[in-house]
Request: fold
Amino acid sequence: MTGKTFEYAPAPESRAVVDLASSYGLFIGGEFTAGAGSATFKTINPATEEVLAEVTEAGEADVDRAVAAARRAYERVWGPMPGRERAKYLFRIARIVQERSRELAVAESLDNGKPIRESRDGDLPLVAAWFFYYAGWADKLEHAGLGTEPRALGVAGQVIPWNFPLMMLAWKIAPALATGNTVVLKPAETTPLTALLFAEICQQADLPAGVVNIVTGAGPTGQALVTHAGVDKVAFTGSTAVGRGIARSLAGTDKRLTLELGGKAANVVFDDAPLDQAVEGIVNGIFFNQGHVCCAGSRLLVQESVADEVLERLKARMTTLRVGDPLDKNTDVGAINSAAQLARIRTLSDTGDAEGAERWSAPCTLPDHGFWFAPTIFTGVTQAHRIAREEIFGPVLSVLTFRTPAEAVAKANNTPYGLSAGVWTEKGSRILWMAEQLRAGVVWANTFNKFDPASPFGGYKESGYGREGGRHGLAGYLR
Amino acid sequence: MSGSERVEVRKTYKLYVGGAFPRSESGRSYVVSDSRGRFLANAAQASRKDGRDAVVAARKAQPGWAGRTPYNRGQVLYRAAEVMEDRREQFVEQLRAAEGVGQRKADTFVDAVIDRWVWYAGWADKVAQVLGGANPVAGPYFNLSVPEPTGVVAVVAPAGPLLGLVSVVAPAIATGNTVVVIASQPHPLPAVTLGEVLATSDLPGGVVNILTGSAAEIAPWLASHRDVDALDLTGVDVDGDAGELARDLEAAAAETLTRVRRPEPGADWLATPGLDRLSWTLETKTVWHPIGI
Reply:
């Protein structure tokens, strides 16, 4: 070989498998209905800025109607239904998600901008698995170690983010329904489409009317939902700032609350780590899903003795990342979800430059339309820099170094967040020692960004409270 | 009968071993009658050799089955429920013929059988979370206990055509064991049809092996078999002199310390099961690892 490389030919996934309506109503009481007002908003493809569909903006009257439908379904149908029958509806949903997974994956990539490889191989299999797993719990709640007669809470108001739209829906709806609650869910305003397709799936599964209600809208819709007097339980995934506001507005009420918020995870690489494997883990940790991941490994803590070598290999690996068309099966990094998010990433990155860190971006050609940000690392970052303290929620990695395990722990825990952490070392005892010391809800060792419906997920400190996934994920929906 | 009337094609009822449907190597069969004594079919009468072949098939399938993810095993068991629901009329008809029960009772039992597959499908990826866990030992050690399947389970299925059979087989395979089961001698036909369901449910061949014939004849060879890890005597008759059989089987099993589950006369198979049929075919493995820099 003379160093000549072959270019990838385009390998686009067909979008013909998705049949989107030009406009969508609200899914309330088992039917798509118009909103009480006339407000709508457009959801766009962030890779092209093309309008995908027009979506109804739910107002207070609509939220009221949805909560009433959920209450009715809870009292008359879903609450009294034996667990083994509820289970069968959830199994049906899991199966339909599996059957329609190609279509849903394409819809997700269109609306969100994430690479089809991730929506197809990551999001969708997990969505089906989440429903399958919690389906099995519906008739086994007394075995979950949560008391002998666990009971549902009632109506759950759920607000989810735009980074894993359908997966976050599954994380919220599957355990809520398995435990006998009914739900009103608000998807994020930039990614409502797969939730609306999910409403169709509820219809195909003959899920009783009102058990799942989907109201679309932005912040005010979410606020109306979480503060509605008819909601017994609020589950929110999103930013720490909004989560704090929800906790404040629920103070003094009887509503239960679980929050899955921001993160600034440390990914700690020791000098004995298998470096190629670690570099893959660093790349996966921060560039997976364009870094739009609350548990992203956004702070690399690398042991000083291997820092240069790790950085060299990391940069080499980053130059091979393919940034572009989310529907291309070879794409590694897709589009930033929205103009607003892109602006936020740019602003924070600029503070990195201003505060004295050194920026390096992978050389890549970004498309002319849509929202894009090249995979970027900052070196020479100190703990005082904003890019080491604040969640960027984009493909931007801050690199810091350490000398001793104790210093790694101190730096890793030096954050108000505590969602996740990564540890890379060949030494098992050190992995377990680090896991003990780290104040984080999930610790990945020699791997990163792993999710499974059987595994609890959630944060310490200002990353929120409550756990989703596993046996623990039932607790937030039972009394 | 007019000359033009169509003559039905009847099914040959055979064993289900290693994913195939062989006749008994012995060439024997026995007459199966309906509740009023009328001839229904000839069922294969399994021999000692058939029992051994079945254990070989079960052993061969076991590592692969246990190596599947629990999620995958759960989906396969759920698939069995789907396929069974699809063929429910056939099972209802067979239960009515076998036991002479009415439509309603047969419906109740077939519903319960299908729901039992769903119940155990859900357990496949949860049993470790309920029966395993971290142990807070007094020292700098990570200590975790996980359940693992014991291996090959030989089962004498309870009397009755179907619900008891599924209730003893499903929990054993949900956790990764493989099974050799001797179906109820008077009611072998639904058991063979169940084999057809399993053969079309993505269950790997050899995970469930169904023998029809005499438990008194075959079970002693399974009880003393060195490659059988657990022996479920649930369906062994304990009335009068028959009680000796259960004792002899348990004694034979003792030679290789095969785990034994004793006969369970009068069990209520319609009741929601607990965890015990899952836990008794599981071993607990505890892993220690030091914690330190």
